[in-house]
Amino acid sequence: MKKRRGAKVADALVFYCAVMTLCLRLSVSQSNTTTTVPVKVGVVLDLSHTTAKIGLSCINMSLSDFYASHSHYNTRLLLHVTDSHSHVITAASQAIDLIKVEQVQAIIGPFTTMEANFVISLGDRAHVPIVTFSATSPSLASLRSPYFFRAAQNDSAQVNAIGAIVQAFGWKNVVPIYTGNDYGKGIIPFLTNPLQQVYVQIPYQSSISASATDEDIKAELYKLMTMQTRVFVVHMTPNPGERLFRIAYEIGMMNFGYVWIVTDGLGNEVNSLGSSVIDSMQGVLGVRTYVPKTERHDDFKVRWRRKFVKDNPTLVHTDLNVFGNWAYDAATALAMAVEKAGAKNLGFDMRNNASGNFSDLLKLGVSENGENLSKALSETRFSGMSGEFSVIEGQLQASTFEIINVNGKGERQVGFWTPGKGITRDLNFTSTSTAYSSSRNNLKPIIWPGDTSSVPKGWDNPTNKKKTMRIGVPVKKGFTEFVKVTHDRSTNTTDVTGFCIDVFKAVLAVLPYAVPYEFIPFEKPDGEPAGTYDELVNQVSYGNLDAVVGDTTITAARSNEVDFIMPYTESGGTMIVLLVKNKHKSPWNFLKPLTWDLWVTTAFSFIYVAFVVWVLEHRINDAFRGPPSHQIGTSLWFSFSILVFAHREKIVSNYARFVVIMWVFVVLILTQSYTASLASLLTVHQLRPSVTDVNQLIKNKLNVGYHSGSFVYGMLKKMGFQDSQLIPFGSPEQCDELFTQGSAKGGIDAAFDEMPNVKLFLATYCSKYASMAPPTFRTDGYGYVFPKGSPLVADVSRGILNVTQ
C-alpha cells in the first residue's frame, strides 16, 4: 500500500512540474510578445549596384541571426529601405523623408562618399546616427560629426601598405590614377606622404572623371604611355575601373614592363568582377582588407549565397565581399546599440521648427534618443564577420591588409601587410623579430603583366619603338685597356671590351631587372673617332644616345647637361715628368751623411771626452802619465780608438769608467747611423723629377702633352698654357716618344692626364717617369653617362657599390 501511494505522489509531482513549466513558457512568450518594441531604421542604398544588393542581404541576415540568438531583447530593428538610384540629391531627399516622416532612429548608408557628404550633415542636425559600410573616402572624416559612424576601413589606412609594396621592389616613380570626385581625390594627400618617406616621386597625377567615356579614358592612357613612369596606382570603383583595364589591355599597357597596383576600391571587389575584366587585369597587384577565415564565416558564406541567389537569380556568379561583411557587422552593432540605449524616447523634439517656414530642412526635428544611441554605438565592441569590431571616434580601426595578385580566373594571395610587421608572407607571428619589413622576399612569387615572373623595372623609354638602349662608347687608339672597339669584317660584327665595359656588364648583372642594350661606337665610317669626349656626352643630352659607357670623366660642365652615376675609379688628375739621375759626384761624398754642425759637435765631443778621461786617470793610472805630449796623444788616441773598440789602455777610476760607458753608447749610435746613410748614398740611384712646378713650365714656355679628346685641354688653357705649348697624344707609346724628343725637338717636358691613365702609363714605364703629388687638378673619376632624370642613375650607382665592394 505504501509503494502504491508513493508512486501516485511521484506521478502527481511530475504532472505538476510539467504544467508549471508549460505555464512559465507561455508566460515568457507572452511577455516577449508584449514588450518587444520596433525601432525604425532607414536604409539608403543604390540598389542598382551589385555591392549594395550584397550589403542589403547581409543586413537582413545579420538582424535575423542576431535576434535568433538574442530573443530576450526588448527591441527589434524595423528597416525602411529606399533606393538612391546613384544620385546625390535623391539620397539626400530620401534621408530627409526618413527622418521627418518615418522618424527613423538611425540610417544605414548612404552607399557612396558623394551621397554621404550631405546625409551626414542631416544626421548631425537631427541627431540621427548615420552608419555607412561602403563610403570609405578620408574626406568624410573632416566633417567630424558625432553622429557619423563608418563601419568600414578608411581609404587612408591602406596607403602605408601600398608604400611598402613600392619600396619592396625599389620603384622610384609612381603615377596615381583616380576618379575625379570626392572618393578619388580624398586619398591623394594621404598616398603622397608614405611614398615621399621612401623617396618615391609622383611626377604626374591622372584624374579620370566618373562620367568619362571610353575615348576619354583611352586618350588619358595614351598620354601616360608617352611618359617614362610605368608604375600606376589605381584608386577607382569598379566603374570606371573595369573600363580602364579593358582599354589598357586593348592598347598594350598590360604587357611586360608595366606595373599596376589597385587599392581596395577594386581589390575588395575582384571576386565580383566578370571574367572578361579578370582577363584584362592579369598580373595586377592589389590590396584589400583581410577577413579572418573562421568556421562561422564559412557557414555564413554558404547560407548567404543560398539566400542571395534565390533573391537575385541573375547574379549567380556573385561572391561575398568585404562590404557584405561590414554591412553584417554594422547591422549587428546597431541592434546592440539600440538595445543598450533603450526604447523609451523614440520621438523627435519639434520645438525648434520655425513656424510658417515650409523648408524641409527647418522642419526636421531632433531625435530625443539620438545622443544615447550615438554613445552606445561608440562603446560597442564584439567579434564580427570582418574581425574585431571597434569604432573609435566614428571610425572602424585599421587592421591587416591582404596583398593579392590577379592571375588565372581570379586572384591569389601573395602576402599580408600589418601596421606593426609590414610585409609578411603569412600571419604566423611566432618569429621573435619585431622589425618592420618591406622586403620583397616576404612575398610569394608574383606573376606580372605579360605573364612573366621577372620584376618590371618600373620605367621605360617614352615611346614604344625604343626598347633597346643605345649606349655610346668612345673610339680611340691608345689606353685601350679601358675601352677597345674591334671590328670583324668577315662576320660584320663589332666587339667592345675593356675595364669600363666589364664593370658595366657586372653592374647590369646585379640589377633586379633586365636592361636590353647595344653598344654604338662613336666613330666615323673610316673608323676614326667622331669627336671629343664632350661631343660624345652631348649626344646623350641631344637624345641621340641613351647612355655613354667608357672612360668618361665626371666634370661640373658635363653634369649640367647629363647625369652621371657615382665614380668607379680613382679621382683627380696629375702631371707626369721625366726622372733624371743626379750626375754630381764628388770625392767628398763621404761627408754628406752628417751635417757640418754634427761633424763639429762630434769632433768637440772626442776632445772633451779625452780631456775628462785624462783628468780622472792621469793621477792614478800610469798609462796616462809621462811627458805632456805623451799624455795628450794617449788621451786623444783613447777617445778615438773607442770608435772601433781598439783601445788598449785600462781605466782605473770608476768615474772614468762611467764616462767611457756613456761615450761607447754615443759612438755606437753615431757609427751605425753614419754607416746606414753612407750605404744608401752609395747604392741607391739618385733620381729626381725634371720639373717640379707647373708655373715653371708656363714661365719657360715648355711644351706639355695631354690625352687627345679629353677635357684636360680645357684645364690646361685655364692654367695659362698657350696653344703652341699643348701637344696631344693618343697612346702611352706616343707620350713616351714625345718625352724622348723634348721641347727642343718638338716634344714635351711634362704631360697631364687623369689618375687611371697615369697609373697605366707608369705601369708601362715605371723607371723613367714619375707623377707629382698632390694631384694637379681635381676630378671625380670615371662615370657612366645618362640623360637628366634617368631612373637608371640610382640603380646603377647602387650596382657600382655592390660590384666594387
Automatic annotation (TrEMBL):
Record domain Ionotropic glutamate receptor C-terminal: where: 470-805
Identification of the protein by name: Glutamate receptor
SMART domains: PBPe (SM00079)
One GO term describing the cellular component: membrane
Membrane-spanning segments: 594-616, 658-682
Organism: Acacia crassicarpa (northern wattle)
Keyword Membrane recorded: yes
Protein family according to the UniProt entry: Belongs to the glutamate-gated ion channel (TC 1.A.10.1) family.
Keywords attached to this entry: Glycoprotein, Ion channel, Ion transport, Ligand-gated ion channel, Membrane, Receptor, Signal, Transmembrane, Transmembrane helix, Transport
Record localization: Membrane
A Pfam family annotated for this UniProt entry: Lig_chan
Record's bilayer topology term: Multi-pass membrane protein
UniProt signal peptide: 1-29
Subunit structure: May form heteromers.
Membrane among keywords: yes
Gene Ontology terms, MF aspect: ligand-gated monoatomic ion channel activity
Function: Glutamate-gated receptor that probably acts as a non-selective cation channel. May be involved in light-signal transduction and calcium homeostasis via the regulation of calcium influx into cells.
Primary localisation category: membrane
